[in-house]
Each structure stands twice: as C-alpha cells, then as structure tokens.
Amino acid sequence: MRVLVVGAGLAGLTAANDLAAQGEDVQVLEARDRVGGRMHGIEVAEGSWADAGAAYLGERHTELLALMAETDLKAVSTTMDGASRFALGQDARTPDAQSVPGRFPPLSGVALGELFDLLDEVTRTIRVDAPWLTPDAERLDATTAAEWAEENLRHPDARLFFPLFLGEMMAAAPADVSVLHMAFYLRSGGGLRYLNAFAGGAQESRIDGGAHRLCEALAARLGDRVRLAEPVLAVEQDDDGVTVRTEGGAYRGDTVIIAVPPVLADRIDFRPGLPAPRSSDRTAPGCAVKVHLVHPSPLWRDMGLSGWSVSSDGPLLSTVDDSPPGGVGVLTGFVTGEEARRYAALPPAEQRAAAVAQAARLFPGLPEPIGFHVTNWLDEPYSRGCYAALFGPGDWIAQGPGLTRPHGRVHWAGTETSTEFFGLMEGAIRSGHRAAAEAADDHLTAGSAL
Ligand SMILES: Cc1cc2nc3c(=O)[nH]c(=O)nc-3n(C[C@H](O)[C@H](O)[C@H](O)COP(=O)(O)OP(=O)(O)OC[C@H]3O[C@@H](n4cnc5c(N)ncnc54)[C@H](O)[C@@H]3O)c2cc1C
C-alpha cells in the first residue's frame, strides 16, 4: 500500500514512521523547507538552541517520552529555583515588580481560589472524548470565555488574572474561545493544575537541544520519503486511489493522511468535497509570539531569581528561564492574546526596545542581551494554530463530530484531532498513531468507499 502524508509536523512524521515500520510505502509532502511545523529550533549562540515553538513536557506525556527514548533524546528540567517576579495591575512603567517565593501571584488568594474553583467546576462537566456531547454543550459552545468571565468573575484580581492565565495556557484572548473549548482544553491536558505546573506538571522539562530535534530524528529515519517545499493544493479521490496535487506535481497513492491544522486543511481543494468544513470564521489561529533574550549566563539566578515572571502589561506577559544546562542564559518571553497582535505589528527595533526595557525592570540590573530573537507565529502561513487552533463559538458542535471521521481514503491527524492532550506535542503523536492504524486498516479492507 502507498500512503501519502501531508505535513511533516510531529503528527505526520509519527504516522509516516509507524507505517514505514510496518513495511508500507510512504511519501510525506511538506509545504515548508524544513520539518517540524510548530516545533522549531533557533540557534541562539554557537551550539545552543532555543525552542521558538513547542518546548515543555511532563511525565503524563507518555507517547512523547517513548519517542524521545527511541530517538536517544533526553529531557532537561525547567529551572524554577529562586523567587518569581510579578508586576500585576500596577503601571507598567514603575520599576517595582514584586519578588515572591514560589509561583503563586501576590493577588487575593480568595479571588484566585474562586477563579480556579469555577474553572474546575465547568471543566469537570466536559465529555473529553466527545465535547459536543457534554451536558449543556450548546450553551457552553455559544458563550465566549470573555462573556463567561464577565458573568462569573466578581473580584478585580480574578478579572485581572484570568486573561493572563488563558494567554499562558492557550495563547488565547478570552473573546476568541468558547467556554466549551476552554474547559475541554484544560480537561484534555490533564486539568488546570497539571497544565499550569512546572514541577510535577506539564512544563516540568524540555527536550535537550530543542524539541525540533525529535522531528529531525523522525524525518532522518524516513530519508528521501520526506519531500520539502511541496505545499499540497488538492486531493482527488477515485475508485482506485487518491491523487495529491502540489505546486510542483502530482503524487498517486492508495490512502492519504492529512496532518495539518484544521484552518489549513480547509484551504486544500478536496474532490469530492468534504461533507463539512473543518473550521469556521470563528476558529482563531492563536496568538503567540515568543521572544528570546540571550545573556552570557543566566544572570537572574545570581539575583536569587528563577527567571519566572508574570506581568499584566506587555509585551512580556510571562518569562521563563530556558537556559541550556551549563551554557548561555536564555530568558524566554511569552507574548500572547491581544498583546501579541499589538506587538507583532511593531517594527523590529521597537519590539527589541520594549522587550529589553521590560526585562530590565523585571530583573533589575539585567544588561542588554547579547542576542535577541522574536518568533512571530501569527504571520506563519503554514501554522494557523499557535499554540493550537482556538475553537470559537459554535465550532465544537459543528466541526467536532467530523474531526477524525475519514472521508473515503482521506484520514486526519494533527494535534487538533486528538481529544487527549489536544494542542500539545503529546496530542500530535497520539493522533499520528491513530491515523496510521486507520490507514493500515484501509489496506486490509482494500480502501473504504466514500
Ligand atoms: C509558540 C508555541 C509554543 C508551544 N508550546 C508547546 C509546549 O510547550 N508543549 C507542547 O506540548 N506543545 C506546545 N505547542 C504546540 C505544539 O507545537 C503542537 O501541538 C504540535 O507541534 C503540533 O504538531 P502537528 O504535527 O499536529 O502540527 P504542525 O506542527 O503544525 O505540523 C503541520 C505541518 O504541515 C505543514 N503544512 C501545512 N499546510 C500544508 C500543505 N497545504 N501542504 C503540505 N504541508 C502543509 C506545516 O508546514 C507543518 O510542518 C506550542 C506551539 C507553539 C506555536
């Protein structure tokens, strides 16, 4: 059997590797001139790499850890020793960010307790395997997280912290996602406490040398079965097989796995057409800009600080120490939600000035960085989902039931098709395994009828 795989992100590469290991003939077609999709490394100093895309993982990410073990990649702990810095609610220009031991923000404990209780309450009701079947799904899917906050959050500290929390978790502005999607995302990722935690949680470690190395290792196994710079434009099915058309040519196979985010899948011309679109005009591509400030060493550690900070004024809404062990100091800044849209539109010199000035306020005495990098995922034409696609009002009810349903010889992969660890690397791998198993099944049943 010949299987064509569209997209050489983690999901597509996982599926292709599974099928190749079973002896199937596989061809991967990737639009970019690199593999990895939303897993992308940048060399911030000679031999030191930072994650411009996905970075963090935890012990519940069992498929990811298994693939890392197979490809000889190690995990490094995310450093959290030292005090955190918080600049919440005050004028961003004042230099008085607060140092606080641990990670809990210096806001009303009662307000934050109530916020997390309310989020827990709505998260608990979600049918994670089929969110559209959740009791009260229609209402939860029709309401945005912004409307939910307006209705439910009374305390000013809860109102201040909620968008920061959502930005950090999902790179979402509250108006962009439905309550159903927000609650599903939290449940799918292991609950808000697991998702939000470093030690013992979903951000416990990173892949040594960069997450992109995993995709590179999977692609290396496939060799010339991965073709780069081949954006797929059309997928045509007939009685005998499938033809995938790219700008450069046409590829014939028995089955195809589409491993791209839903918004991009809808740009492919399917013949016969899909029974329903995979996204809507309310599906948002996510709002993430990652900033890396590079120093000769992690200088904030000398100040007794962990590098972790949260600010209610941008551009750097949070920062974290992503320094490689024993090397340069890498402070990663996250710019998400509405702030990302504003920051992404600034000229590069202004982006740098704003980020460097804020870092110096947060970590007093921090000098000019020796390196500075901005990765703007908003403008990436082949990643319309950063961190992951954001399902807006109506999306789960309309698109959810069809997300994994094969369309004849077309199967679906990608983190947005996984109800387990949706949006994460772990979800991408699980979706790749599922799609490969489905395609292999097609082989046994000699292709499925439309
Ligand atoms: C800034 C950022 C931070 C993140 N942080 C984390 C984190 O800490 N932990 C975590 O687990 N996850 C994180 N994620 C999410 C994680 O990166 C994704 O869940 C995962 O990489 C998705 O893999 P995928 O294969 O489903 O999709 P993608 O990586 O998007 O792969 C899809 C591939 O398809 C290609 N493509 C698109 N259209 C076409 C076409 N028409 N023809 C051919 N090829 C096409 C794309 O170029 C891409 O290579 C983050 C993402 C971002 C952007």
Which molecules are bound besides the chains?
flavin-adenine dinucleotide
User: How many helical elements?
Assistant: 15
**CATH fold-level label of the largest domain:** FAD/NAD(P)-binding domain
What is the CATH top level name of the largest domain? Alpha Beta
Give the count of structural domains: 3
Give a count of the beta strands, DSSP E runs of length 2 or more: 21
What fraction, in percent, of the residue positions are helical? 25-40%
Poorly predicted runs: 91-95
Rg:
22 Å
Basic shape: globular
- Mean pLDDT score: 94
CATH superfamily of the largest domain: FAD/NAD(P)-binding domain
* Helix/sheet category: alpha/beta
- Beta fraction: 15-25%
Please list the strands of the largest sheet in the order they lie side by side.
8-7-17-18-19-16-20
- Main beta sheet, described? 7 strands, mixed
Going by CATH, the architecture of the largest domain would be 3-Layer(bba) Sandwich
Distance between the termini: 18 Å
Describe the structure.
With 450 residues, the protein is of the alpha/beta class. The chain has three domains: 2-37 and 212-274 and 407-444, FAD/NAD(P)-binding domain, CATH 3.50.50.60; 41-53 and 75-81 and 201-208 and 286-379, Polyamine Oxidase, Chain A, domain 2 (Alpha-Beta Complex); 105-196, Guanine Nucleotide Dissociation Inhibitor, domain 1, CATH 1.10.405.10. Helix content is 33%, strand content 21%. The protein has 15 helices and 21 strands. Strands 8-7-17-18-19-16-20 form a seven-stranded mixed beta sheet. Strands 10-2-1-14-21 form a five-stranded parallel beta sheet, with helices on one face. Helix 1 (10-21) packs parallel to helix 9, helix 1 runs parallel beside helix 15 (425-444) and helix 3 packs across helix 7. Bound molecules: flavin-adenine dinucleotide. The site of flavin-adenine dinucleotide (FAD) has 41 residues, from helix 1, strand 5, strand 16 and helix 15.
